[in-house]
Amino acid sequence: MHPALEHLRTTTRRRFLRDCGTGMGVLALGSLLNERLLGAAPAPAAGATSPLHWAPKAKNIIYLFQSGGPSHLDLFDYKPELNQREGQPVPEELVKNIRLAQIGKNAALLGTRYRFAQYGQSGVWLSELLPHLQTLVDEVCFVQGFYSEAFNHDPATLFMNTGAQLSGRPAMGSWFSYGLGSENKDLPAFVVLMTGVGQPLTNAAWGSGFLPTVHQGVQLRSQGDPVLFVSNPAGMGSERRRQSLDALRDLNQMRLDVLQDPEISTRIAAYEMAYRMQTSVPEVMDVSKEPARIHEAYGTTPGQASFANNCLLARRLVERGVRFVQLYHRGWDHHGGPDGNLVFDLKKRCLETDQPTVALIRDLKDRGLLDETLVLWGGEFGRTPMMQGALKPDQIGRDHHPHGYTIWMAGGGIRPGIVHGRTDDFGFFAVENKVHVHDLHATILHLFGLDHTRLTYRFQGRDFRLTDVHGEVIQPILA
Questions:
Q1: Which CATH number is 60-477's, of 1.10.3470, 3.40.50, 3.40.720, 2.40.50?
Q2: Would you say residue 403 has pLDDT above 60?
Q3: Strands 218-219 and 422-423: what pairing?
């Protein structure tokens, strides 16, 4: 046998990868990670799914996560029967096989304290607490038959964001980064912003799980340095930072040559991204140059951290190609009492979020971005039709409730001006056109050109996906 053919016959995959690590592999890796090599800047990262499974309707997503569990019964889901039967025991058939977080199964029914009316050509019922959303209902799809499986905050938050109730799975934004890649070489594909106080959140909700860590969400701060340690320390100039990063890259590359660990490649890429972010992130986070009419529309105060400020930042981020922007706003956990009630605290949350949310959608539409940007609003669950606390303005509340509640979407290929699904007369169970968490995830992936059954990652011997074992695309809500 010819010596060259004998070499091919005896070469293993491990040997091939090792040899590439000292030849073409190093050249390829260097060309991707070193902007100055041959004078070329790195291209935006491509995703694992290329080509896409079908033509996408959306390119970017802004997920407005209302942490704590907004009360669908006081905001979106008008139930006259519940109002009429306030104070009566909850019907036994509703709770006989149900676990409740903090109240007993004999708790009394509680009607809403707020006026509801119909708005827009679609005639959607909305609470008086949402005066700005009332003007935009014909742009929105309300999903009122939504349900989850978890009734405590941490597992429910993880379930909405990762498709699993235990930590360790990739967040939805990480799946988007993995499947679709980045549109901007200087900004992360997945960005997280947070405001409000209340139920603590863990970074498992925006972690990359078993995906390479390059796909995890990058949390930006609304005040001070947008990313901790992204600024140069005193005495460290840009040229010196570049030299130190080059030295660090060379050391990491030597380690990579020995171990062939892909996480080392991720670390090298992360350092390079951080270097580029020193310029790109402060620019995108500086909202001071936005016109006064924009600040007025959103209700922002430049230099002040707020949900309104983060909504404006979300628009600026998707303008620059950030694939997945997630805004967490805490403080919706209204059990009753001074730490959270359905009168004072629910009003505060609505005042903080209603105006900037609607301003964001209008701003996206005015800039021609709404058709390709999906806006998703919702929490980890709703609230019970039964009362928790006492019938006093500063004491009244509701418990956690995953069995039927409301989320809504706009833009990005979603059919506007409709209500999909229905809960029963008490707002307890989703009973018509029910939508599960996995169905929502499947539908969102579909809008981005991805088949949820084919976007997979092999880990520990099996192929995982965001929807894991089930999920159906909600065809009636697609434009």
A1: 3.40.720
A2: yes
A3: unpaired
